[in-house]
């Protein structure tokens, strides 16, 4: 009787050992979870060919990641004034760019009516609102002036509306005698011109046509 019980116990032990071995072997084949398990794969962003976008005379394509924009607001110059509504309509298509150079030639404020001045302020606000949606890593803004004339720089105050802070602001004086533009001069943060432009931004851009 004892021998029968011993055989039974031995059989049960073998079954248990076999089950344990099978469980252990199965677990060895299971891949451990990784940090990326279940994480959706990111699709690469499609490459945008800027040449296929809406073209505008004021937009110059430098490369597939860089454009240059020239905005002419003066009516008395030989060059035709920029069609700003058309520019504002086309520009959002260029949101894939990483570098942007913007040059603005604004009239002297005292030479235009209040209505036109407000229109230019509103247009520049809209222009910079579009630019602020771009994922840029370089923005150069140059105010083209006919003499060393601060009022002609005022629209440059719009840079202070940007959340993007890696911008650089310049002014460039046209030499009437030589008939050429001088080298751009950078307006450093904290400089006299910068402080004055911050005041212009508070007084004009924050109050006009919100």
Q: Poorly predicted ranges (pLDDT <50, ≥5 residues)?
A: none
Number of extended strands: 7
Number of domain modules = 1
Quaternary organisation of the protein chains: single chain
**Helix and strand composition category:** alpha/beta
Determine the fraction of residues in helical runs and give it as a percent range.
25-40%
- Helices and strands, in N-to-C order? HEEHEHEEEEH
Biggest sheet descriptor: 7 strands, mixed
Q: Would you tell me the overall average pLDDT?
A: 85
C-alpha end-to-end distance: 101 Å
Shape: globular
Summed up, the helix count is 4
> In what range is the share of β-strand residues?
15-25%
Radius of gyration: 33 Å
Task: Report on this structure.
With 210 residues, this protein is α/β, with parallel strands linked by helices. It has one domain (54-205). It is 31% helix and 19% strand. The chain has helices at 2-28, 84-90, 114-131, 192-205, and strands at residues 59-63, 66-72, 99-105, 138-145, 167-175, 180-181, 185-186. Strands 1, 2, 3, 4, 5, 6 and 7 form a seven-stranded mixed β-sheet that branches. Strand 5 and strand 6 form a beta hairpin. The longest helix is centred in the first third of the chain and has 27 residues, at 2-28. The protein is globular. The model has no long low-confidence stretch (mean pLDDT 85).
Task: Summarize the structure in short.
By secondary structure, this protein is α/β, with parallel strands linked by helices.
């Amino acid at each position: 009787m004892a021998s029968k019980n011993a055989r039974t116990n031995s059989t049960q032990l073998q079954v248990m050992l076999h089950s344990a071995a099978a469980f252990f072997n199965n677990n060895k084949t299971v891949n451990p979870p990784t940090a990326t398990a279940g994480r959706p794969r990111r699709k690469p962003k499609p490459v945008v060919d800027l040449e296929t976008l809406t073209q505008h005379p004021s937009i110059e394509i430098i490369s597939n990641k860089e454009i240059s924009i020239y905005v002419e607001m003066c009516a008395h110059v030989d060059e035709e004034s920029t069609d700003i509504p058309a520019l504002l309509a086309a520009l959002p298509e260029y949101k894939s760019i990483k570098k942007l150079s913007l040059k603005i030639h604004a009239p002297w404020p005292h030479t235009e009516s209040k209505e036109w001045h407000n229109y230019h302020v509103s247009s520049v606000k809209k222009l910079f609102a579009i630019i602020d949606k771009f994922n840029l890593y370089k923005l150069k803004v140059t105010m083209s002036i006919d003499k060393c004339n601060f009022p002609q720089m005022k629209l440059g105050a719009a840079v202070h509306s940007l959340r993007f802070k890696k911008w650089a602001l310049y002014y460039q004086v046209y030499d009437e005698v030589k008939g050429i533009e001088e080298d751009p001069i950078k307006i450093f943060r904290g400089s006299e011109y910068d402080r004055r432009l911050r005041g212009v931004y508070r007084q004009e851009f924050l109050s006009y046509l919100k």
